[in-house]
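User: Could you walk me through two proteins back to back? I'd like the raw sequence and the structure tokens for each, with a short line separating them so I can tell where one ends and the next begins.

Assistant: Of course. Protein one, sequence then structure:
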Amino acid sequence: MEKFRVSATGLSMNYMPEYVAQEMGFFEEAGIKVESYVPSPWTKCLTDIDTNIAEAVVGGIWVPLVYMDRIANYYSFAKIASRCPLVIVSREPIKGDFSWCAMENKRVLVSGGDGASHYLSVAGCAKEGGADIKAIRFIHDFSTSMIIEMFLGGFADFIVLQPDMANKFIADGSAYLYADLSLRGGIIPWSVYYGTEALFNHPANLAGKFYTGLQKGTTWLLEHGGEGCEKIIARNWPHVKLEDGIATINRFCKEGMWTSSIEITEQELTRWQGFLVEGDILDAPLPYDQVVKKVI
């Protein structure tokens, strides 16, 4: 059986369809043996696919978009997350109806160590929602551990966090929920699988077999919810209370983190590219067919 190695930019609950597909044997049913690992630093993922250590990367589609025809050409072929999972919490409770304008003239801490997508998603959503992003004092030059220390030390008014850490801040009384981006952020191809041209020229169509297994994992997850993921949650996130992990997966299912199809759609790609153009890391949107490969 052919191996299919995935170099992952992180271990995340929004990657649950892959973990389910692995747990349930859906990849092996499709004819491949999948191995997934998280290198450090995450940028080693790119070296891994360039040197054939891995067949694919799972991470933000912003990398293939920014690198295209400049550094290296990577092509995306499946999505695993259709919404940004991040949560924005505030130091003080925000009164009244929700408004993105509440961040204006405030300091907002966003991790810079995890790539560009955290800042780009928050800024893009805020602008769509009517905020003046030039008036928002984004600070995105530090690692996740550093911004957490800074916020707990009294610096800044808002911080953007992964849901498990945001829930801890809220439970501890260190912060208040401001915006759950899986609910308020809309649909974007947040996390995808991508590889080099060599992957798509493979005679055994490894990408197509992976796609088939991942689709089965996604369908199963949407049908069974977090209650079917107890073993996976306990194994991968031992610091998270099991009931909290199940609740997060169920919330993701309800709010559209995973859609019925893992196909990357042109509409969601266009919206995300607009955020990248606004963030000045992409000159103009790239044609859909230049970015996405069909493998089924």
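----
Protein two, same layout:
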Amino acid sequence: MLMLVVVGLLVAGYVAKTLLARDEAPPEDPILTIPMALSDLEPGTVITDAHIALGRMRESHMTPETIRSDRVVVGRVVKQPITAARAILTTDLYPPGEFPPLELGENMRAVSIALGDGSSAVDGLIRPQEFVDVHFTPASYRDQERTGGMTMTLFKGVKVLAVNRSTSGASPAARGGNTVTLELSEEQANIIILARDKGDLTLTYTPEGKGDGGVAVSRSDRATLDEILGLDPIPAAERPFASEIFYGSGRTVLEFQNRRRIDNGSRDSESGREPPQTIDGETGALDSELPAGGPSA
């Protein structure tokens, strides 16, 4: 009997606890994880994964403009300065796909060039708003076999407007392939558009600042492989010339180039040289074209 009373009391206590229990209330001000800048970001910076990290912030400190996912941030362009370790707002960024307008000098043009690797942009150290010299190495040209190749300085003191679409100094060139936008005069723009399809372009940093906007054409701005190696250039080949010798009804043509006879036909058994072709005066045919026994009557 006592056992039944004890069991009944336990059951009654459990039921009462269940009926009176309430769900535990969530914290009134939860802490959320949101993307934040690792360092101060300047306007014009194209945000990448390297620019952001995840930080913690109480929900009460957020506004409707606070961005809560890094997926929304990567690839966007900074419109307003962003402070490190602070929440990023939608008003801090340009809308997706939009970029700031380029600021060009009077009568200047913006031209983009693709560089194959970071070494063509000083190992990725070149930044927007800096100045560079532009060098051109043609893939081929008419004197290449004689000089061993050539490289030349096209322009000096050209302003870098953007690197990989970023116009701020916070985004240097990468160590791989890069797209660099340069500020050029109209004459320089025409030249580089042709040059980028005819060879390799390389940028070198110059601390001297802006150039005169012209084209570097002096002899000191060019170098060939022969000059680098200290070799004398191979003289250009002389144009061949022919000498005609007439005898009787026949004619002999001798060709010379570089002060030497150009051999053709079969070799002479005594001299070891190839005899010249002889043209029959009556038929106009070469001796190699005549049938055995001479021309037909």
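The longest helix spans residues 2-20.

Let me know if you want the two compared in more detail.
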